[in-house]
Design a protein that fits this description.
One of its GO terms (molecular function) is zinc ion transmembrane transporter activity. One of its GO terms (cellular component) is membrane. The chain crosses the membrane at residues 6-26, 38-55, 61-79, 147-168, 188-212, 224-242. This protein is an all-alpha fold. It has one domain (3-21, 31-242). It has nine helices and two strands. It is globular, with a radius of gyration of 17 Å. It starts with a helix and ends with a helix.
Length: 244
């Protein structure tokens, strides 16, 4: 398959991420309790994605995956501490805590996309059929990941279309990194476990350090636990159905 075809197919996986924001076109307002529920839902989806990434990474290289997870988690904790020192931070329509959370989730999901882009490129190195299967699976998986981003951005005041746009932006590393991964399969295959671990560790830290504590404060721990667990199980079920 040509590099152009690989790029365009990987670009479709990035565009699919924006679809996750579209359900908010049918939601008018978000109460404080509903915002807590949204954070719990986003956290559950991120934990499900993290579990899948860790399983994939461990099968390719357990130590590299573990090292990547530690670095990813540490990076999020460090970023949160740095951002907490900037009370007046503003990003577009957001400011304060909402802006800091937006920066964190965009950073975490973008890091996740680097690993997925490498996975797409490497899969095409194993043949067109394998590559098309992995690309389709990742595109479908990206929809709930886009929803996780929208669940954080839209209730904070970001428009639905802007949230969809940011979701797509967070996935642009997929087509960008799919090309060199396809051209240099061997080298990128060796680095993939660390990237998968990094993305998983970052998402776990984001869920545990930021999203879930905020959700409990807004909606109560019983409601948050139920929603987060349900989202986690649903996310894992989707991955099993996709054969990931």
């Amino acid at each position: 398959m040509s590099l152009t075809a690989v790029f365009l197919l990987a670009l479709m996986t990035a565009i699919a991420t924006g679809l996750g924001a579209l359900p908010f076109l049918f939601v008018s307002g978000v109460a404080r309790r509903s915002l807590g529920s949204a954070n719990a839902l986003a956290a559950g989806l991120m934990l499900a994605a993290s579990a899948v990434l860790l399983m994939e990474g461990t099968s390719a290289g357990a130590w590299l995956t573990a090292g990547g997870a530690l670095v990813g988690a540490a990076a999020v904790v460090l970023a949160q501490r740095v951002l907490s020192q900037h009370e007046s931070l503003s990003v577009g329509e957001l400011s304060g805590a909402d802006a800091r959370r937006a920066v964190l989730i965009m950073g975490v999901m973008t890091a996740h996309s680097f690993a997925e882009g490498i996975g797409v490129g490497v899969s095409y190195g194993g043949g067109d059929s394998l590559g098309l299967f992995v690309t389709t699976a990742i595109a479908l998986q990206n929809v709930p990941e886009g929803l996780a981003i929208a669940l954080v951005l839209v209730p904070s005041g970001v428009s639905v279309w802007a949230a969809a746009g940011w979701a797509v932006v967070s996935s642009l590393p997929q087509p960008v990194f799919a090309l060199p991964a396809y051209a240099g399969v061997e080298a990128f295959t060796q680095a993939l476990p660390f990237g998968l671990g990094f993305a998983a560790g970052a998402m776990v830290a984001m869920a545990l350090v930021d999203l879930l504590p905020e959700a409990v404060e807004m909606a109560g721990w019983r409601r948050v636990a139920l929603i987060a667990q349900g989202a986690l199980l649903a996310g894992l079920a989707v991955d099993v159905a996709l054969g990931l």
